[in-house]
Amino acid sequence: MPYGMMGMGYYMDPTWILVIIGAVLSMIASARVSSTFNKYSKVRSMSGMTGAEAARRLLNSQGIYDVQVRSVGGRLTDHYDPRTKTVNLSDSVYGSTSVAAVGVAAHECGHVMQDQNGYIPLKLRAAIVPAANIGSQMAFPIIILGVIIGGLGSPLVNVGLILFSLAVLFQLVTLPVEFNASRRAVALLGQTGILGDQELGYTRKVLGAAALTYVAALAATVLQLLRLMILFGGRRNDE
User: Fold this and answer.
1) Helix (H/G/I), strand (E/B), else coil: 229
2) Distance CA 122, CA 174 (A)
């Protein structure tokens, strides 16, 4: 079990339970999206379109011709890159005619719609990314350095906590971006007739399961921040 040092002895760190809870939530969400995707990967869409074909048709239906649809390696590594204007679909989505593949491809097209329409949460997330990356990487070293140099009351500790808070902010802003992309995806699939009503229901389940991974990521990050605040926040040296 996790132990820490206090004075010359040892003590059990009860705050590790927060990290464990976050890890469990993330594993449950990951397992859920994997099982749901696998289930509906076996259901062929009535249109017979592959994920790539569906993405291209959805983009064309919105008058978007300058965004390319590409294949990338990996599983569920699908993403839209606004810098290169590309919808990148994983091997399990690009050439698959399943309901799950079409739904995931449509979700990435939803992000394209957001980019085209200047969706504010998407812009905000893009603006936060550099700071959030730096914050998540530097928070722990700065907190540890602060404790070593000035103890728990060191201003560096508070700087580290603020930096880690940026990662929480990024996860929080990600939620509306992902949920909105899924809503756009389902609406577009219905409008274009690529999927029927029953198939749209299956797609909602796939995208709903995927959305849970973002909720779990936010919860895990918040719990980690809470742990850091309990251990280091609001405490002063007794010296």
Assistant:
1) helix
2) 8
How is residue 2 annotated by DSSP? Answer: -
pLDDT in tens, 63-99: 999 999 999 998 889 999 999 999 999 999 999 999 9
Tokens of 223: 């719990």
Q: Which residues lie below 8 Å from residue 138, measured CB to CB, with a gap of 6+?
A: 160, 163
Is residue 107 within 8 A of residue 213, CB to CB? The reply is no
The pTM of this model reads 0.86
Q: Which two tokens stand for residue 99?
A: 């309901």
- Find the DSSP H helices in 41-154: 51-61, 91-94, 99-117, 120-150
Query: How far is residue 100's CA from residue 34's CA, in Å, rounded to a whole number?
Result: 11
Q: What is the mean pLDDT of residues 203-210?
A: 96
C-alpha span between 36 and 97 (Å, rounded) = 16
Q: Which of 108, 178, 199, 239 is catalytic?
A: 108
Known active-site residue 108: yes
Q: How far is the C-alpha of 8 from the C-alpha of 5, rounded, in Å?
A: 7
Largest interatomic CA distance in the chain? 73
- The predicted structure's pLDDT at residue 12: 63
Q: Looking at the chain, which runs of residues are DSSP E strands? A: 3-6, 9-12, 68-72, 79-81, 86-90
